[in-house]
Amino acid sequence: MANLFSLADLSIPEVNKILNRAEAFLDGAQSRAAEDKVIASLFFEPSTRTQQSFSMAACRLGAKVLTFNADSSSMQKGETFYDTVRTFEEIGSDALIIRHKENAYYKKLTGVKVPILSGGDGTGNHPTQSLLDLMTIRQEFGGFEGLRICIVGDILHSRVAHTNIEIMRRLGMDVYTSGPEEFREEGCDFIEFSKALETMDILMLLRIQHERLTGSMQTTAEEYNRDFGLSLSRCGRMKDGAIIMHPAPFNRGVEIDDEVVEGPRSRIFKQIRNGVFVRMAVIERAFSE
Description:
Helix 2 packs across helix 10 (268-288) and helix 4 (127-141) crosses helix 10. This protein is α/β, with parallel strands linked by helices. It has helices at residues 12-26, 49-60, 81-90, 127-141, 159-170, 193-199, 221-228, 232-235, 258-261, 268-288, and strands at 38-43, 64-69, 95-100, 116-121, 148-152, 174-178, 202-205, 243-245. It folds into two domains: 7-125 and 273-288, 3-Layer(aba) Sandwich (Rossmann fold); 127-272, 3-Layer(aba) Sandwich (Rossmann fold), CATH 3.40.50.1370. The protein is globular. The strands form two sheets. It has a four-stranded parallel beta sheet, sandwiched between helices. A four-stranded parallel beta sheet has the order 6-5-7-8, sandwiched between helices. The protein has ten helices and eight strands.
């Protein structure tokens, strides 16, 4: 049984093994590792890409998927998170995919005996998103060592940023952050956005995590777009061969303009496609280790 909560729990060889398997699936490799398995998709926060690509990955591996809706569940009657999860285990789920707003939610689930694959926890970790980001970067550049990436936006509240900063540093990448002062985080190497445009191999844009803000945002959407939004003119200042990434959902006209989303530098929809193959590799790993 192989849980997946955080990439910090994995060695670099283990990360590369998952990426290699994901590439094999992209190239047409077949697996029925989840044949006759039932996987419960328990998302206690909204999701499109992560939840549905996990479901697609499970189906391609031969599994059936149970989809949970918190708003129509017994949680509305007072059932706890733990009891909900245990219910899905006891009715016969062979693995659980869980997203929850609480950091390290999985520490409450130590009694669960089936594999748990995290679809994101609070502001802490988003391991499969980071893996698909890494897959996309490796496809583009052939490796990681010495690449320069700037993650731009709401670093403070982003599980994507926190996961990527940790693993990308271990892979030998130079990781910088940029964005409004209110979203900066200690321990991150800050760079002015104007300089990042001209010096980075990868610009990874983030949306503002409005659902996690405890107060009013100081910067308006218009101000954000003016100061940190990626427009066509700003794309023109990027290095030759530099690419644009975004974990999505993206806010058009705020952190990224319409013309840039599917422009020649953008790899955003490629990231989404890669997510299925990464999640196939993660599900296969859960049933094979």
